[in-house]
Design a protein that fits this description.
This protein is mainly beta. The chain has a domain of about 180 residues. Helix content is about 5%, strand content about 45%. It has three helices and 31 strands. Strands 14, 15, 16, 17 and 18 form a five-stranded antiparallel β-sheet that branches. Strands 1-31-30-29 form a four-stranded antiparallel β-sheet. The longest helix has 15 residues. The chain binds calcium ion (CA) (2 copies).
């Protein structure tokens, strides 16, 4: 029996009524009673994401603004606006329109924001790239041809873009039409060269991609989603250090690093925190041994992470429970960790029932509880992005 079946709403109700009744209902299902700061306060709405009907997939705080990303590159929607909200007033600023279908990871490097153009609305051989305010004002850097650009990283003076490309030179890269590729620029983003490429040994190469990338202590790491001749998934982590690439065999834990959401890869100290659905762990590039640097966390399997973020030596993961008895559907969950393994539940923010829907099985209108799909922390404030395209804030919780 889930929370809906336990009788949250017994008669047809309008959305406005649900909002009013929620405050009454929450204490019934909370355990323990929620603290005042666990009811998030609305900061503002990403109106472009709301118009598109999209959830907010990543948040980033920089320069007194909360940036949020959205889009749907499966549905080929877009263009997408890179919008931000003032942390003090909640006022929205449309910084830039990207002629692409989706923005995912928002990377903050030295206080500046970078957003990769995941699926540019441009020919695969046209130069595309990323939006950034690194130069002082917001611009789109049409850097170099990509099919998809999933992530961006910087190490020292070098900038890296990860994604997929049309194979520009079969004599050099092999016969497949597409490559998982990482390109590098040493001149601030003006000129680019392929610095690492991989391709499947058999079958289609259309989904050969680097989906994420991490800059860790002078190194850059990524894993290509490609398959060998037997159809087995690649388990080699590619690591760039001191101008050359090496590979680490991730062993049986390779699947932890082979996920499609760059928003759920963040760097915590020397570790790359990886989180998706019901598995979370880290890769420590400084660890000795063949696969000794890969560790699974203690997060319960019934917790589904939607986004992770790192602030001041703490990684945070926001998500929801998706199985188990006694699940409180009126709450999302935030876990936090300082070491990447031992996570503690630090907040249970109440969600906002924005709509209702008709439950055919129960024959009644029941609340459609919104979920938080993205997270950022800045100082004493935690920001939560919702599946209603709104950004909320609560006090940043204490972390043991
Ligand atoms: Ca697409
Ligand atoms: Ca994130």
């Amino acid at each position: 029996m889930n929370a809906y079946e336990r009788g949250l709403v017994r008669t047809p109700v309008k959305a406005a009524v649900v909002v009013a009744t929620t405050a009454f209902l929450i204490p019934v299902f909370s355990s323990p009673a929620i603290a005042a700061d666990e009811i998030p306060v609305l900061l503002g709405t990403n109106t472009s994401a709301a118009a598109a009907g999209d959830v907010l997939t990543d948040l980033a705080v920089a320069g007194g603004q909360v940036y949020s990303s959205y889009g749907d590159y499966d549905a080929n929607t877009g263009p997408v606006d890179l919008n931000s909200l003032s942390v003090t007033t909640g006022a929205l600023t449309k910084q830039l329109t990207v002629n692409g279908e989706e923005l995912k990871a928002l990377r903050v490097i030295d206080g500046k924001v970078y957003a990769a153009d995941v699926d540019p609305k441009a020919p695969w051989t046209a130069p595309v790239g990323y939006a950034t305010n690194a130069g002082g004002s917001w611009t789109y850097n049409a850097a170099t041809p990509f099919q998809h650009v999933f992530d961006i990283a910087r190490s020292g003076s070098e900038i890296f873009l990860a994604g997929s490309v049309v194979n520009p030179d079969p004599a050099l890269y092999g016969p497949t039409p597409d490559l998982a590729a990482i390109k590098k620029s040493s001149d601030g983003g003006k000129t680019w060269t392929i610095t690492k490429a991989r391709a499947s040994a058999g079958g289609s190469s259309a989904y050969d991609r680097y989906y994420w990338m991490a800059a860790v202590g002078g190194k850059v790491a990524a894993i290509a989603e490609v398959r060998d001749a037997a159809g087995n998934a690649n388990r080699l982590l590619d690591v760039y250090s001191g101008g050359r690439w090496t590979s680490i065999d991730l062993g049986r834990l390779f699947s932890l690093a082979q996920r499609h959401e760059p928003t759920k890869y963040e760097v915590l100290g020397t570790k790359i925190i990886l989180s998706d659905s019901n598995s979370t762990g880290y890769i420590d590039l400084n660890a000795k041994g063949k696969t000794g640097g890969v560790q699974m966390s203690n997060l319960p399997a019934s917790f589904a992470s939607r986004d992770i973020t790192v602030h001041n030596g703490v990684a945070y993961s926001v998500g929801n429970w998706f199985s188990g008895t006694g699940i409180d559907m009126t709450k999302n969950v935030v876990f936090a960790t300082r070491d990447g393994v031992n996570w503690t539940q630090v907040a249970t923010p109440a969600v906002i029932p924005a709509t209702t829907y008709w439950d055919h099985g129960g024959g009644e209108m029941i609340p459609n509880y919104g979920e938080y799909t993205s997270i950022a922390v800045d100082g004493a404030t935690m920001y939560l992005g919702g599946d209603d395209a709104k950004v909320y804030r609560i006090s940043a919780p204490a972390v043991p």
